[in-house]
Design a protein that fits this description.
Keywords: Secreted. By secondary structure, the protein is mainly alpha-helical. It has seven helices and two strands. Helix 1 crosses helix 2, helix 3 runs antiparallel to helix 4 and helix 4 crosses helix 5.
C-alpha cells in the first residue's frame, strides 16, 4: 500500500454488509465473467459502487433530500479524525475541493439512477487524499512513485488502496 488512507466515509463493516444485502449484492466476489467473443471481457459492475456509496451516504446521514450534506460531511470527518489528526488539514481541504466540484456540477453522475453525487464525491475525496498523501503515511518506493505518476496522468483512475482496504 502506497498511502495509508483514512477511509472516512466508508461506513462500518456491518453497514457496508447491510448495504450490499439491501442492494442484493453477494457478500463475496463473484467469479470473473467469461471473455466476450471479441477477446475482451466485459467491464465489471460500476453501478455496484454507485449503489453502495449512495446507500452508505443515506444510512449515515451524509445525504439530505438526495443531495450531499456538507455539514454532515464535516462532522463525520472531524469525528473520524479524532484518532488520526495527521490527516486533518489535507482531508479538510480535500473535502472542500470535492464538495465544491460536486455542487458546481463538475461531476456528472455515471448513472441516471444515482444522481446524488455520493460516488463521485467519494472517488474525488479518495483520489485527492492519495495524491496529497502526508509524508508519514506515504511509502517512498519506486512502485509508489510510478503509481502516483500514473494516477496523475489518468484523472479518472483511483488509487489501488481504495479496493484493497475494507471499511473499519
Amino acid at each position: 500500500m502506497c498511502c495509508d488512507l483514512p477511509l472516512v466515509y466508508r461506513g462500518t463493516p456491518e453497514l457496508f454488509k447491510a448495504c450490499r444485502e439491501e442492494l442484493g449484492f453477494p457478500d463475496h466476489k463473484p467469479p470473473p465473467p467469461p471473455p466476450s467473443s471479441d477477446g475482451h471481457g466485459p467491464h465489471g459492475h460500476p453501478q455496484r459502487g454507485m449503489c453502495v456509496a449512495e446507500c452508505l451516504f443515506n444510512r449515515t446521514g451524509l445525504l439530505e433530500n438526495g443531495k450531499i450534506n456538507k455539514e454532515a460531511l464535516k462532522k463525520a470527518l472531524d469525528e473520524y479524525l479524532k484518532t488520526d489528526g495527521a490527516w486533518k488539514d489535507v482531508a479538510t481541504t480535500t473535502l472542500e475541493i470535492c464538495y465544491d466540484a460536486q455542487t458546481r456540477g463538475d461531476f456528472k453522475p455515471d448513472n441516471e439512477k444515482f444522481t446524488s453525487g455520493s460516488s463521485e464525491f467519494l472517488k474525488c475525496f479518495t483520489r485527492n487524499l492519495f495524491m496529497d498523501c502526508i509524508p508519514e503515511k506515504w511509502t517512498d518506493s519506486e512502485e509508489c512513485k510510478k503509481m502516483k505518476e500514473k494516477i496523475d496522468k489518468c484523472p479518472k483512475m483511483l488509487p489501488p488502496a481504495l479496493f484493497n482496504k475494507r471499511p473499519h
